[in-house]
Sequence to fold (189 residues):
Amino acid sequence: MQYTSLIAHLIDIAWTVMILVWIVGMFSAKRTARRVGGSWLLYRFVALAVVYFVLRYAGLSNTVFTYYIQAPVVQWIGLVCVYVGVALAIWARFYLGRNWGMPMSEKEGAELVTTGPYAFIRNPIYSGVLLAITGSALCLGLLWAIILVLYAAYLIPSVFTEEKIMARLFPETYPAYKARTKRLIPWVW
Fold:
């Protein structure tokens, strides 16, 4: 197996594990009380992921979408980013437990989670997914870079919308939590 092919398969495994955790977790989540909007865009990202895997496995490995930096150190940095990002997202997902839901949605009986990765970052799932997509772009090319830009364009408004929701749901505790944590990058932003 070629070196690049090995890296690509390891990345596929990481994303597959995360997707499986999400699917299994959907069945134990609390009911959605209200969806603010934007979930239609998330379905487009799922469609984009399907297109990616079709392109990847249809033998289109030498197209403009698969140009990437071939330096082994960049490949390893990218692979580490993928695995750290997926691990962070899964860790955060487990800490959310039954409170997990689609972005910009409210759960019945929602609780403010401030432990685990949420002790440092208010949106660790988003942080993990962004890191994993960045790593995938480093290893697998332009298509993942496009996915990164599109996901970031969806994510940033989601972060601000969710902050408003949390401030409304938890007016006594959220302001202090918000003051001691960062949105996406610990100690930075």
